Recover the amino acids of this structure.
Protein backbone atom coordinates (compact mmCIF):
# COMPACT_ATOMS: atom_id res chain seq x y z
CA UNK A 1 0.00 0.00 0.00
CA UNK A 2 1.00 3.61 -0.50
CA UNK A 3 0.13 6.61 1.67
CA UNK A 4 -2.15 9.37 0.51
CA UNK A 5 -0.56 12.72 -0.23
CA UNK A 6 0.53 14.75 2.82
CA UNK A 7 2.87 17.64 3.55
CA UNK A 8 5.87 16.93 5.77
CA UNK A 9 7.01 19.43 8.43
CA UNK A 10 10.31 19.27 10.31
CA UNK A 11 10.25 21.69 13.28
CA UNK A 12 13.34 21.99 15.48
CA UNK A 13 11.70 23.55 18.55
CA UNK A 14 8.67 22.64 20.62
CA UNK A 15 7.21 26.10 20.05
CA UNK A 16 7.38 25.64 16.27
CA UNK A 17 5.78 22.20 16.53
CA UNK A 18 2.96 23.52 18.70
CA UNK A 19 2.44 26.38 16.30
CA UNK A 20 2.09 23.95 13.42
CA UNK A 21 -0.30 21.71 15.34
CA UNK A 22 -2.39 24.74 16.25
CA UNK A 23 -2.70 26.16 12.73
CA UNK A 24 -2.64 23.22 10.32
CA UNK A 25 -5.80 21.32 9.45
CA UNK A 26 -5.74 17.55 9.88
CA UNK A 27 -2.16 17.38 11.18
CA UNK A 28 -0.66 14.36 12.91
CA UNK A 29 2.53 14.35 15.01
CA UNK A 30 5.22 11.80 14.16
CA UNK A 31 7.19 10.29 17.05
CA UNK A 32 8.69 6.82 16.50
CA UNK A 33 6.26 6.07 13.70
CA UNK A 34 6.07 2.34 14.44
CA UNK A 35 2.26 2.42 14.42
CA UNK A 36 1.43 5.65 12.61
CA UNK A 37 3.43 4.99 9.45
CA UNK A 38 1.88 1.57 9.04
CA UNK A 39 -1.58 3.11 9.46
CA UNK A 40 -0.77 5.82 6.91
CA UNK A 41 0.58 3.29 4.39
CA UNK A 42 -2.58 1.18 4.78
CA UNK A 43 -4.69 4.37 4.62
CA UNK A 44 -6.26 3.81 7.99
CA UNK A 45 -4.92 7.30 8.79
CA UNK A 46 -5.15 10.08 6.18
CA UNK A 47 -3.35 13.17 7.50
CA UNK A 48 -2.90 16.24 5.35
CA UNK A 49 0.16 17.24 7.37
CA UNK A 50 2.80 15.25 9.24
CA UNK A 51 4.70 17.11 11.98
CA UNK A 52 7.96 15.32 12.79
CA UNK A 53 9.01 15.62 16.45
CA UNK A 54 12.34 13.83 16.15
CA UNK A 55 14.59 16.89 15.88
CA UNK A 56 13.13 18.68 18.89
CA UNK A 57 15.63 18.80 21.75
CA UNK A 58 14.38 18.36 25.28
CA UNK A 59 11.49 15.98 24.57
CA UNK A 60 13.52 12.88 25.47
CA UNK A 61 15.23 11.79 28.65
CA UNK A 62 14.70 10.24 32.07
CA UNK A 63 15.01 12.47 35.11
CA UNK A 64 14.68 11.53 38.77
CA UNK A 65 12.87 14.16 40.81
CA UNK A 66 11.83 14.03 44.50
CA UNK A 67 9.42 11.11 44.66
CA UNK A 68 9.01 11.01 40.89
CA UNK A 69 10.49 9.84 37.62
CA UNK A 70 9.92 12.19 34.70
CA UNK A 71 10.20 10.63 31.25
CA UNK A 72 10.14 12.74 28.10
CA UNK A 73 7.56 11.74 25.55
CA UNK A 74 10.18 11.14 22.83
CA UNK A 75 12.26 8.78 24.98
CA UNK A 76 12.92 5.63 22.95
CA UNK A 77 11.65 2.36 24.34
CA UNK A 78 15.13 0.90 23.90
CA UNK A 79 16.55 3.60 26.16
CA UNK A 80 13.95 2.77 28.79
CA UNK A 81 14.76 -0.92 28.45
CA UNK A 82 18.44 -0.37 29.24
CA UNK A 83 18.07 2.40 31.81
CA UNK A 84 19.46 1.44 35.27
CA UNK A 85 17.14 4.05 36.77
CA UNK A 86 14.06 2.41 35.24
CA UNK A 87 15.26 -1.03 36.35
CA UNK A 88 15.71 0.20 39.91
CA UNK A 89 12.75 2.54 40.33
CA UNK A 90 10.19 1.20 37.82
CA UNK A 91 10.92 -2.53 37.52
CA UNK A 92 7.37 -3.15 36.28
CA UNK A 93 8.10 -1.05 33.19
CA UNK A 94 11.47 -2.73 32.69
CA UNK A 95 9.81 -6.15 32.65
CA UNK A 96 6.96 -5.05 30.39
CA UNK A 97 9.36 -3.59 27.81
CA UNK A 98 10.69 -7.07 27.03
CA UNK A 99 7.26 -7.84 25.55
CA UNK A 100 7.09 -4.71 23.37
CA UNK A 101 7.48 -5.73 19.74
CA UNK A 102 11.08 -6.59 18.83
CA UNK A 103 14.42 -4.83 19.18
CA UNK A 104 13.96 -3.00 15.90
CA UNK A 105 10.62 -1.52 16.94
CA UNK A 106 11.89 -0.58 20.40
CA UNK A 107 14.84 1.22 18.79
CA UNK A 108 12.41 3.71 17.24
CA UNK A 109 9.23 3.47 19.30
CA UNK A 110 8.72 6.11 21.99
CA UNK A 111 6.87 6.23 25.29
CA UNK A 112 4.68 9.13 24.21
CA UNK A 113 3.92 7.56 20.86
CA UNK A 114 2.75 4.34 22.49
CA UNK A 115 0.54 6.16 24.97
CA UNK A 116 -1.01 8.38 22.29
CA UNK A 117 -1.63 5.46 19.95
CA UNK A 118 -3.40 3.98 22.98
CA UNK A 119 -3.83 0.42 21.80
CA UNK A 120 -5.53 -1.22 24.81
CA UNK A 121 -3.22 -4.22 24.45
CA UNK A 122 -0.01 -2.16 24.42
CA UNK A 123 2.31 -2.96 27.32
CA UNK A 124 3.35 0.60 28.22
CA UNK A 125 -0.29 1.67 28.25
CA UNK A 126 -1.14 -1.05 30.80
CA UNK A 127 1.92 -0.22 32.91
CA UNK A 128 0.97 3.46 32.97
CA UNK A 129 -2.52 2.55 34.14
CA UNK A 130 -1.15 0.35 36.93
CA UNK A 131 1.33 3.01 38.05
CA UNK A 132 -1.15 5.94 38.09
CA UNK A 133 0.99 7.91 35.65
CA UNK A 134 0.40 11.61 35.02
CA UNK A 135 0.53 12.78 31.40
CA UNK A 136 1.89 16.25 30.59
CA UNK A 137 0.29 17.92 27.58
CA UNK A 138 1.27 21.16 25.84
CA UNK A 139 -0.22 23.47 23.23
CA UNK A 140 0.23 27.08 22.17
CA UNK A 141 -2.54 27.85 24.67
CA UNK A 142 -0.53 26.51 27.61
CA UNK A 143 0.08 23.29 29.48
CA UNK A 144 -2.07 20.86 31.41
CA UNK A 145 -1.72 17.56 33.25
CA UNK A 146 -4.05 14.62 33.29
CA UNK A 147 -4.15 11.47 35.40
CA UNK A 148 -3.73 8.42 33.22
CA UNK A 149 -7.07 7.06 34.39
CA UNK A 150 -8.70 9.99 32.55
CA UNK A 151 -6.42 9.77 29.52
CA UNK A 152 -8.39 7.22 27.44
CA UNK A 153 -11.67 8.61 26.09
CA UNK A 154 -12.48 5.47 24.12
CA UNK A 155 -10.89 2.87 21.90
CA UNK A 156 -7.55 4.34 20.74
CA UNK A 157 -8.85 7.83 21.60
CA UNK A 158 -6.51 9.73 23.94
CA UNK A 159 -7.67 12.83 25.77
CA UNK A 160 -5.53 15.08 23.57
CA UNK A 161 -6.89 17.95 21.47
CA UNK A 162 -5.82 18.35 17.81
CA UNK A 163 -3.53 21.27 18.67
CA UNK A 164 -1.89 19.51 21.64
CA UNK A 165 1.17 17.32 22.07
CA UNK A 166 2.08 14.95 24.88
CA UNK A 167 5.47 16.17 26.10
CA UNK A 168 6.18 14.02 29.15
CA UNK A 169 4.92 11.46 31.62
CA UNK A 170 5.46 11.32 35.38
CA UNK A 171 5.56 8.14 37.45
CA UNK A 172 5.65 7.93 41.25
CA UNK A 173 7.83 4.88 42.01
CA UNK A 174 6.57 2.55 44.72
CA UNK A 175 8.68 2.27 47.91
CA UNK A 176 11.68 -0.01 48.09
CA UNK A 177 10.57 -3.50 49.02
CA UNK A 178 7.51 -3.67 46.80
CA UNK A 179 7.06 -6.48 44.30
CA UNK A 180 5.88 -6.12 40.71
CA UNK A 181 5.18 -8.38 37.78
CA UNK A 182 4.03 -8.08 34.18
CA UNK A 183 2.71 -11.10 32.30
CA UNK A 184 0.88 -11.47 29.02
CA UNK A 185 -0.55 -14.02 26.63
CA UNK A 186 -0.09 -13.43 22.91
CA UNK A 187 -0.12 -15.57 19.79
CA UNK A 188 3.67 -15.18 19.49
CA UNK A 189 6.37 -13.11 21.10
CA UNK A 190 6.28 -9.53 19.91
CA UNK A 191 2.57 -9.51 19.09
CA UNK A 192 0.16 -7.34 21.02
CA UNK A 193 -1.19 -9.11 24.06
CA UNK A 194 -4.53 -10.87 23.89
CA UNK A 195 -4.61 -10.32 27.65
CA UNK A 196 -1.92 -8.85 29.90
CA UNK A 197 -1.72 -8.14 33.62
CA UNK A 198 0.43 -5.67 35.55
CA UNK A 199 0.59 -6.06 39.33
CA UNK A 200 2.29 -4.22 42.18
CA UNK A 201 2.18 -5.30 45.83
CA UNK A 202 3.65 -3.73 48.95
CA UNK A 203 3.80 -5.76 52.17
CA UNK A 204 3.85 -4.40 55.71
CA UNK A 205 6.10 -5.65 58.52
CA UNK A 206 3.66 -8.46 59.30
CA UNK A 207 3.71 -9.75 55.73
CA UNK A 208 0.24 -8.43 54.91
CA UNK A 209 -0.62 -6.47 51.78
CA UNK A 210 -0.42 -2.77 52.57
CA UNK A 211 -1.00 -1.59 49.01
CA UNK A 212 -1.96 -3.25 45.75
CA UNK A 213 -2.41 -2.33 42.11
CA UNK A 214 -3.68 -4.55 39.30
CA UNK A 215 -4.32 -3.51 35.70
CA UNK A 216 -5.49 -5.67 32.80
CA UNK A 217 -4.64 -4.94 29.18
CA UNK A 218 -6.26 -6.18 26.01
CA UNK A 219 -9.64 -6.97 27.54
CA UNK A 220 -11.56 -3.85 26.55
CA UNK A 221 -11.32 -0.47 24.89
CA UNK A 222 -8.77 0.75 27.47
CA UNK A 223 -6.66 -0.76 30.27
CA UNK A 224 -8.81 -1.85 33.19
CA UNK A 225 -7.79 -1.08 36.77
CA UNK A 226 -9.19 -3.75 39.06
CA UNK A 227 -9.98 -1.48 42.01
CA UNK A 228 -12.23 -4.03 43.72
CA UNK A 229 -9.45 -6.61 43.65
CA UNK A 230 -7.01 -4.09 45.10
CA UNK A 231 -9.38 -3.25 47.95
CA UNK A 232 -10.09 -6.91 48.66
CA UNK A 233 -6.36 -7.67 48.90
CA UNK A 234 -5.62 -4.88 51.39
CA UNK A 235 -4.70 -6.31 54.79
CA UNK A 236 -4.53 -9.90 53.53
CA UNK A 237 -1.60 -12.27 53.74
CA UNK A 238 -0.85 -13.08 50.06
CA UNK A 239 -1.37 -16.82 50.22
CA UNK A 240 -2.08 -18.80 47.08
CA UNK A 241 -5.74 -19.17 48.10
CA UNK A 242 -6.14 -15.43 48.69
CA UNK A 243 -4.57 -14.53 45.34
CA UNK A 244 -6.61 -17.13 43.47
CA UNK A 245 -9.83 -15.83 44.97
CA UNK A 246 -8.89 -12.25 44.12
CA UNK A 247 -8.04 -13.19 40.54
CA UNK A 248 -11.42 -14.92 40.14
CA UNK A 249 -13.05 -11.49 40.32
CA UNK A 250 -11.61 -10.85 36.86
CA UNK A 251 -14.08 -13.37 35.46
CA UNK A 252 -16.82 -10.77 35.93
CA UNK A 253 -15.27 -8.03 33.80
CA UNK A 254 -16.76 -6.72 30.59
CA UNK A 255 -14.59 -7.91 27.73
CA UNK A 256 -14.54 -7.63 23.95
CA UNK A 257 -14.77 -10.04 21.07
CA UNK A 258 -12.52 -9.70 18.06
CA UNK A 259 -11.26 -11.73 15.12
CA UNK A 260 -8.84 -13.65 17.36
CA UNK A 261 -10.77 -14.68 20.47
CA UNK A 262 -14.15 -14.41 22.15
CA UNK A 263 -15.01 -12.28 25.15
CA UNK A 264 -15.44 -15.42 27.28
CA UNK A 265 -11.97 -16.60 26.37
CA UNK A 266 -10.54 -13.20 27.31
CA UNK A 267 -12.26 -13.33 30.68
CA UNK A 268 -10.81 -16.77 31.37
CA UNK A 269 -7.36 -15.54 30.35
CA UNK A 270 -7.77 -12.48 32.57
CA UNK A 271 -8.19 -14.73 35.61
CA UNK A 272 -5.06 -16.70 34.74
CA UNK A 273 -2.93 -13.64 33.92
CA UNK A 274 -4.07 -11.80 37.05
CA UNK A 275 -3.27 -14.78 39.26
CA UNK A 276 0.19 -15.20 37.74
CA UNK A 277 1.01 -11.50 38.03
CA UNK A 278 -0.19 -11.27 41.63
CA UNK A 279 1.67 -14.43 42.63
CA UNK A 280 4.94 -13.23 41.07
CA UNK A 281 4.57 -9.76 42.60
CA UNK A 282 3.87 -11.27 46.03
CA UNK A 283 6.88 -13.59 45.83
CA UNK A 284 9.15 -10.75 44.79
CA UNK A 285 7.81 -8.49 47.55
CA UNK A 286 8.41 -11.17 50.16
CA UNK A 287 11.91 -11.87 48.84
CA UNK A 288 12.82 -8.19 48.78
CA UNK A 289 11.43 -7.71 52.28
CA UNK A 290 13.69 -10.49 53.59
CA UNK A 291 16.72 -8.81 52.02
CA UNK A 292 15.83 -5.41 53.52
CA UNK A 293 15.38 -6.94 56.95
Amino acid sequence: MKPSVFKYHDPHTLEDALGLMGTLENARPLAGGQSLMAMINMRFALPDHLVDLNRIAGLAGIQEQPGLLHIGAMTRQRDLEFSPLIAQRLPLMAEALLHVGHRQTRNRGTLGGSLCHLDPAAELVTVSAACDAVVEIASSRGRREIDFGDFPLGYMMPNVEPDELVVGVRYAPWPAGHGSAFVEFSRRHGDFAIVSAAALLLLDGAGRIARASLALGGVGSAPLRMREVEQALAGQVPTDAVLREAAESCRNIESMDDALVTADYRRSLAVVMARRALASAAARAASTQEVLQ
